[in-house]
Structures are given as C-alpha cells and as structure tokens.
Specification:
This protein has one domain: Jelly Rolls (Sandwich), CATH 2.60.120.10. It has a seven-stranded mixed beta sheet with strand order 1-3-4-11-6-9-12, with no helix packed on it. The two termini are about 35 Å apart. Helices cover about 5% and strands about 45% of the residues. The protein is globular and about 55 Å long. It contains one helix and 24 strands. Strand 19 and strand 20 form a beta hairpin. By secondary structure, it is mostly beta strands.
Length: about 280
C-alpha cells in the first residue's frame, strides 16, 4: 500500500510535472493476480485495483490501516471496469459485469475476486472510506442506478451519468459513487468544472484506447495544472481542486467522493472563462 500525504493549494506552483504525477496520479492499479492500493490522507480514502487472471485474489488486511480486517471500520464501493467477474463477500457471490457496482459495508470479513475469463480479466476498482456504522452489502447492475443525462453535443460534453451509491440510492456512511460515459463525439467531462471544499473526489478513467489520453485539469481555478492520464489510471482530487478534462477518444470514468456530506449537487461551479 502506497501512502499519499495530503497537500495544500499553496504547494501547486512549485510542483513540476513529475511531482504532480507522483502526488495525484495513480498509474499502476491493475496488476495480474495482485491487489494494488493507495492510501490518500485526503479524507483517509483508500483506492485499490484488483485484476484476477490465473487465480482468485483475496483482499488483504493492510498494516497501514491498523485493523483486524479491511472492513473492520471501513466501507467501499467497487466497480468492475474490465471483463465479467465475481466478488464473494462472506460466502455470498455476486456476478459483476462491466460498469456494475457492489457496495460493501462495514463488518465484511472475507472478500475475494475472480475473473470469468482469464483472457479478458475483470478489473475491480475499489474506493474505500472510514465508516461509523454498517449498511448492507448491495449490488447494482450497470445502467440500473439513477440515470442522469447531462451536457450537449454542441459543447462536446454529452454524457450519461449513473449514480449508484448516493443519498437517494444505495446507502453508505459517506461514500458517493457512480459511472459516467461520454457519448460518441463528446470529449469533455464535468464541464463547467467545480470544486467542493467539503469532499475529496477521485476519477478512474476506463474504456479508453491504449494510444489515447485524457488531459485532466486540476488545481485551484486560478492556478490550474494538467495531468495526461491513460486507461485504468486514477486521479486523486483534493477538496480544493477542480476536476475536469477532455479525451483524445471517447471514454468512461468512475467518480467517487467522501467527506462532509453525500449531496451530489453540493458543488461550487467555475465557468471556464474564469479559469486560468
């Protein structure tokens, strides 16, 4: 488990490209038959990737979180961004297709991951935050969450947003999670950009061709920077940072938040004409 310590906006002007990538970009989440994890001290979120190929992979108990088992005092949303696979939670197995989501509540002891086809392995992306109570483990099939159509083809940001874990959907302590898919011909996501000082957020980009990239904008609205992001990579977005971007090809992304509240629309928009 990597450690990523919290940062402040005052640090951004002094960071070069390598430093920005080291602090905010998670590049190697999916490694065959391993669990790769990052602990960010922004709201004490854990990001993890699991890609089972030749065997079933169990979620370990990381010494960095000082608990008897991973979900001892945590919850998580898990989205499959690869081929079909299964997740087994304390003996109950869930068949998880691409884009589907499983919420795992506090108290789950044994969690394992398997791919249905090793030639097209599943890639499970996990977003976890501390939890103060237990909500039931709940599965949501891709496309059956709360669907919102946003944007417009004229502005190249027409997109379908599936809300899975949120205040009016799957219950959680603080995790909010969903999947957004850009329509063909649209490249911009999350426009206008916004911040929400009450919650951190992370984006996991997927369904992006190997030779394509996302130009992800981050930083304060008056002091933006960019990251070039490939398929299967995640961006840690502190509460003070904008988060938006555009791609050189169509793509999808998993968005997930944790912090003060679960209101999806609690955001402070920033018109692009005011960004620098």
């Amino acid at each position: 488990m990597q450690q990523r310590y919290a940062t402040s906006p005052e640090q951004i002007p002094g960071m070069d490209t390598a430093e920005l990538r080291r602090r905010y970009l998670v590049e190697d989440l999916f490694v065959a038959d391993e669990v790769q994890a990052v602990y960010t001290h922004h709201d004490r979120v854990v990001l993890a990737g699991v890609q089972p190929v030749a065997r079933t992979v169990a979620l370990p108990t990381f010494p960095e979180i000082r608990s008897e088992f991973f979900f001892s005092h945590r919850e998580a949303g898990i989205v499959n961004v690869g081929g079909r696979g299964t997740i087994t939670v304390d003996g109950t197995t869930y068949d998880v297709g691409t884009g589907s989501c499983l919420y795992v509540g506090r108290g789950a002891r044994e969690v394992t991951f398997t791919s249905a086809d090793g030639a097209a392995p599943a890639r499970f992306y996990l977003f976890s935050a501390p939890a103060h109570t237990a909500y039931p483990t709940t599965f949501v099939e891709a496309g059956t969450g709360n669907v919102r159509e946003l944007g417009d083809g004229v502005t190249s940001n027409r997109r379908t947003l599936n809300q899975y874990i949120h205040e009016n959907g799957v219950r959680s302590c603080q995790v909010v999670m969903g999947v957004t898919t850009l329509h063909e011909g649209s490249m911009w996501n999350t426009m206008p950009a916004h911040t929400h000082d009450r919650r951190m957020e992370a984006y996991l980009y997927f369904d992006l061709p190997a030779d394509a990239r996302i130009v992800h904008l981050m930083g304060e609205p008056s002091q933006t920077r960019h990251l070039l992001v490939a398929d299967g990579q995640a961006v840690i977005s502190p509460s003070w940072s904008v988060h938006c971007g555009f791609g050189s090809a169509s793509y999808s992304f998993v968005w997930a938040m944790a912090g003060e509240n679960q209101s999806f629309d609690d955001m402070d928009g920033v018109p692009i004409a005011e960004m620098r």
